[in-house]
Each structure stands twice: as C-alpha cells, then as structure tokens.
Design goal:
Blueprint: H1 2-28, H2 36-58, H3 65-89
Helix pairs in contact: 1-2, 2-3
Length: 90
C-alpha cells in the first residue's frame, strides 16, 4: 500500500507542476486561463512540491503576493502532512 501512496503523490505533483506550465503557456497565448483558486487549491491538496517547482521552472505567478505567501505555506503544510502520514499511518 505504501508504494501506491508514494506513486499517487508523485503523479499528483507532476500534474500540479504541469498545471503551472499549462497556465503559463495560456497566459502567453492569451487563452482561457486556469483559475488562481484552482492552482492554490491543488497546491494545498498535497501538490505543493509540484506547484513550487512549476513556479520556479516556468517563472509563473512569482510576482503575485497571494502566491508568494500561499504556495510556501502549502509546502509547509504538505511537509507536515507527509511526515504525519509516514510516522503514524503508513
């Protein structure tokens, strides 16, 4: 079971990373964007490592104060949740 949880976590973070890239692409092409609320929610839903890497790699949403505060906060929360899961659940 532990392997499935780890695999799901990795796949989900790849998806959140790609969401940042897709939104950056859509921003450059002036297409319909992914809502900021969706990007932040995905980050808090254990996708913070992927979202953080997406912000860095794609240089996306790095000037927005909301993202400067909430994405690192979600990263801390994700780390605590993963630590708790490893220590007490898995």
């Amino acid at each position: 079971m532990k392997q499935y949880v780890i695999t799901a976590f990795i796949v989900w973070n790849i998806i959140t990373f790609l969401l940042m890239g897709i939104d950056k692409y859509k921003a450059k092409k002036d297409l319909k964007r992914i809502r900021e609320k969706t990007l932040i929610l995905c980050s808090f839903a254990l996708g913070a490592p992927g979202s953080s890497m997406g912000m860095i790699v794609f240089h996306h949403k790095t000037r927005k104060v909301k993202f400067k505060i909430l994405i690192p906060s979600s990263l801390v929360l994700n780390a605590l949740l993963v630590w708790y899961a490893i220590k007490y659940i898995l």
